[in-house]
Write a structure and sequence with these properties.
- The chain is about 20% helix and about 35% strand.
- It is of the alpha+beta class and about 160 residues long.
Length: about 160
Amino acid sequence: MCGQDIPFWRRFTDAEYCCKQHRQQARDQIDQLAVSRLTDYVERLQEVPAPAQAPEPGPIDVGRERRAAPRVATVLEVRYRVFSDGTLTASGRGRTVNMSKTGILFTTEGRLPEGDSAELLVAWPTGLRMIVGGRLVRCHGAHAAIACQSYKIASPPGRAQSA
């Protein structure tokens, strides 16, 4: 039986293919769908309205929101690398705590140097990865915050991203 007549999401899970080409076409369609949904998610993060400005702070004001964009609580696996003057100074694994269009707060294996460049590889449940480049703007204990300057969506290793 040729897998061509079966919907692509079922072909990906079935073992019945007439050839490798149809199996690869099904995988490419699933990758396209996942990239589309991940891109939509990132765009929705960018559309979240900024919080209303708080009134002028009094002598002690700890509740005022200072972020440029609101954060969304999201727990995803992350790998990070920290660079100082182009030299790798730290690397490790952690998890995101929250993220927005302008930054990501994540856990670290130890204290990281504030102000250095960093690269995060965020693993999405779909198998896709988002590579974020930026600068560490806040590091406290086993948490660090990166100001996002660029991002790229990549296919999982061993699978070509479809155009």
